[in-house]
Specification:
Elements lengths: L17 E13 L3 E8 L2 E8 L3 E2 L7 E10 L12 E12 L16 H6 L1 H4 L3 H23 L3 E2 L17 E3 L7 E3 L5 H9 L4 E9 L11 E10 L3 H20 L8 E4 H8 L13 E2 L1 H4 L12 E7 L8 H13 L5 E7 L2 E3 L8 H10 L7 E7 L1 H18 L10 E5 L4 E3 L6 E3 L26 E6 L2 E8 L4 H10 L4 H15 L6 E7 H9 L29 H7 L7
Parallel strand pairs: 3-6, 4-6, 7-10, 12-18
Antiparallel strand pairs: 1-2, 1-5, 2-3, 5-6, 8-9, 10-11, 11-23, 13-14, 14-17, 15-16, 15-17, 18-21, 19-20, 21-22, 22-23
The structure holds aspartic acid.
The site of aspartic acid has 9 residues, from strand 22 and strand 23.
Length: 575
């Protein structure tokens, strides 16, 4: 027997108990006649005191040891440790395994670079904070299973090796050995399968699904990620969202003991863009975007074109710090959104200052101050250009300033639905109409009549759940009428041949009594990030890829043997 109790479970109630413990040496302090060891297992850390003369193996950091001893109350409690009121007086300390000196400090606070942490992930995972993140992730999954099971959902696995799915990102392909020149795609999501499960009469499906998208990586994105994937039949949008709110409530309650207020509010996509410049607005702070076109309409500013949008945000209490250098940086930021510049107006000593002022008359200046309720030391950032770009830039600056100025209270959670997304959008690169979500999304009933004549104004039954500025999930009601589906494909400019090749099997399935259905997918990784309190998605994944899409432990992707390539009929082109 290695142990009879877990280190982190020991408390004052266990005083005088004889214990056998195992774990890793987290810290050791040798005071000559006595040796202190911080012994770590998954449940926590406990202090072990080894007196002179006690049988004790060599002790170094990360050695695996067994301790036999008695629990005693400490003279002075250590409040930083959960077990800080007690310590274990050792009668015997045995070596189970030695360890090389670890290349990183194994503690919540480590100075190791992320590259080192990822390379030695198995050591990084010994840090209590990392185990906490994985525990949160596990808790979320447990709540999902419990809640969905209670609501008559059935968990079903769908294939990993499948045909293309319609999410629109680049896909990971797997060459077929048996059918040379043919490829499977790894699923971007189980979209087609879960819809076919509804046609199959399963009515309520879920799956903790692994998904794959070959996109550029960001702090909140990974090439292989996990979705809580859900599909239901015979529910209206409101019924489905209410059911999902119950799930979110349970997840928050079970994992971090926070009771979210239901029902969640819904805001339209159009409002989200207008007020926050984003379809995933962080609504934990205000700083809304507003129009200034109306005020500047009669004013002649040579570099403003009246056909364009002129919109602004007010940032409070920052004018004195807003130097030329900062304004230059804001202009650079504008360039990232394909806009030429921003105009910054500072309100100092009851006056508005900035290069725009010389074009404005007294009255306009007054109106500008009133409209934005400017106070001493506030600034206005004004952006001019196409509506969407202006909104995106200001939305982005809004988030940056909130972080910089500490406007977001820690440990607050703001959840909302963004609804009524446009059905289609224009792809900027080739000016082609593409589906905003995917081509199986149902247009809103009231938009059906004008779908063909004015597709870009059509709205859809699509909804995203936004938490603290993250898109934590999203879904849609689906088309179940073949004629509407055909119309959508026509609007997207797909030929009959393309439809047949890409989605032929699915169009066939739709013909056999498809129920009205709809679903959603929550990003498990993002939920774990939000609930774990980290803004790095890699923290909540045991073995993540780095920003170059490489697994730093195994160094995948790797070269393979020529014989494997030959078997697959693949020739690698030098470029
Ligand atoms: N398959 C969609 C996605 O991954 C979610 C859904 O519509 O259910 O974004």
């Amino acid at each position: 027997m290695y142990r009879n109790v877990y280190n982190g479970s020991l408390s004052i109630k266990d005083v005088n108990k004889e214990v056998e413990l195992v774990g890793w040496v987290s810290k050791r302090r040798n005071l000559g006649q006595i040796l202190f060891i911080d012994l770590r297992d998954r449940s926590g850390i406990v202090q072990v005191l080894v007196n002179e003369g006690i049988k004790c193996c060599e002790i170094r950091n990360e050695y695996v040891i067994q301790v036999k001893g008695v629990v005693k109350q400490r003279k002075e409690a250590n409040n930083k440790l959960k077990t800080g009121e007690i310590e274990v007086i050792a009668s015997e300390v045995n070596l189970i395994n030695s360890a090389f000196n670890p290349p990183l400090i194994i503690d919540d606070k480590t100075d190791a670079l992320e590259d080192t942490r990822l390379k030695y992930r198995y050591l990084d995972l010994r840090r209590p904070i990392m185990q906490h993140y994985l525990d949160i992730r596990h808790q979320i999954k447990m709540s999902v299973h419990e809640y969905l099971n209670k609501h008559h959902f059935i968990e079903i696995e769908t294939p990993m090796l499948c045909a293309s799915s319609p999410e629109g990102a680049k896909e990971y392909l797997v060459p077929s050995r048996i059918h040379h020149g043919n490829f499977y795609a790894l699923p971007q999501s189980p979209q087609m399968f879960k819809q076919m499960l509804m046609i199959g009469g399963l009515e309520r499906y879920y799956q903790i699904a692994r998904c794959f998208r070959d996109e550029d990586l960001r702090a909140d994105r990974q090439p292989d990620f996990t979705q809580i994937d859900i599909e239901t039949s015979f529910l209206s949008q409101d019924e489905l969202l209410e059911l999902m709110e119950g799930l979110l409530y349970k997840i928050f309650k079970d994992t971090i003991n926070v009771e979210i207020k239901l029902p969640l509010r819904q805001i339209k996509y159009e409002t989200a863009i207008k007020d926050y410049g984003s379809d995933k607005p962080d609504t934990r702070f205000d700083m809304k975007l507003f129009d200034v076109n109306d005020l500047l309409n009669d004013v002649n500013i040579p570099f403003y074109n009246k056909e364009m949008s002129i919109r602004a945000i007010k940032v409070e209490n920052i004018a004195h710090e807003t130097t030329r250098k900062i304004i230059d940086a804001l202009n650079l930021e504008a360039k990232k959104f394909s806009l030429d510049f921003v105009n910054v107006l500072k309100y100092e000593q009851n006056q508005l200052h900035g290069s725009l002022i010389k074009y404005l008359d007294e009255n306009t200046i007054k109106q500008l101050i009133n409209k934005s309720s400017l106070k001493e030391n506030d600034i206005l950032i004004i952006s001019h250009g196409p509506y969407n770009r202006v909104c995106s830039l200001l939305g982005n600056l809004r988030n940056q300033y909130a972080k910089k100025l500490g406007l977001i209270k820690p440990n607050t959670y703001d959840l909302l639905w963004v609804v009524d997304f446009p059905m289609f959008e224009l792809n900027v690169e080739d000016n082609k109409i593409v589906a905003t979500h995917h081509p199986f999304t149902r247009p809103k009933d009231e938009c059906l009549k004008t779908l063909k004549s004015d597709p870009l104004s059509a709205l859809s039954y699509a909804y995203d759940i936004v938490i603290n500025g993250y898109e934590a999930g999203g879904g849609t009601l689906r088309i179940y009428d073949q004629n509407i589906q055909k119309e959508i494909f026509e609007i997207l400019g797909l030929s009959d041949e393309e439809i047949k090749n890409k989605f032929g099997y699915f169009i066939e399935a739709l013909k056999y009594g498809t129920p009205p259905h709809g679903g959603i997918a929550f990003g498990l990784d993002r939920l774990a990030m939000i609930l774990g309190g980290t803004d790095n998605i890699r923290d909540v994944i045991a073995f993540p890829k780095n920003l170059s899409a490489v697994d730093p432990v195994s160094m995948a992707p790797n070269k393979v043997d020529q014989s494997q390539l030959d078997e697959l009929g693949i020739i690698i082109k030098d470029n």
